[in-house]
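Section 3.1: Structural characterization of target chains.
Under the original work plan, the team committed to producing a structural model for every single-chain target entering the pipeline before any wet-lab resources were allocated. The record below documents one such target. The sequence was received from the expression subgroup and is listed exactly as submitted; it comprises 134 residues.
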Amino acid sequence: MSVSFDKTFEVQAAALRLRAERNQTLAENLANADTPNYKARDFDFKAVIQQQLQGGQPAGTLNVTHNRHIQPNGGAVGQPQMLYRVPYNPSLDGNTVETHQEQAKFAENAVNYQASLQFLGDRIQGLMGALKGE
């Protein structure tokens, strides 16, 4: 019986990649909290992870045959489509970053990143135990 490491670690690896990218996006939002006309961005983690695990593209996106083709969201193939956040209390300078909301989402994403790391570590420990015959 052969073990496919791609299939074994697929979910955790995709989740870690997306969580890291979301951390970067949320950090950019926080860094630009005082920048006039900056629009807070984010992406729907659940939709993107489902799309990547199913190997498809979400409805309404262009079907591309090469990773250098133009994408509607400006990113490469496989990159999540960035969405703009609608603020609860818009500021006078046009900035849509709400610091308390971004901090909460950043903290939630950091906890989920740690959980993904823990799941990956547990999976590796389980495989090592199986290989050792424990």
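The CA atoms of residues 38 and 115 lie 31 Å apart.
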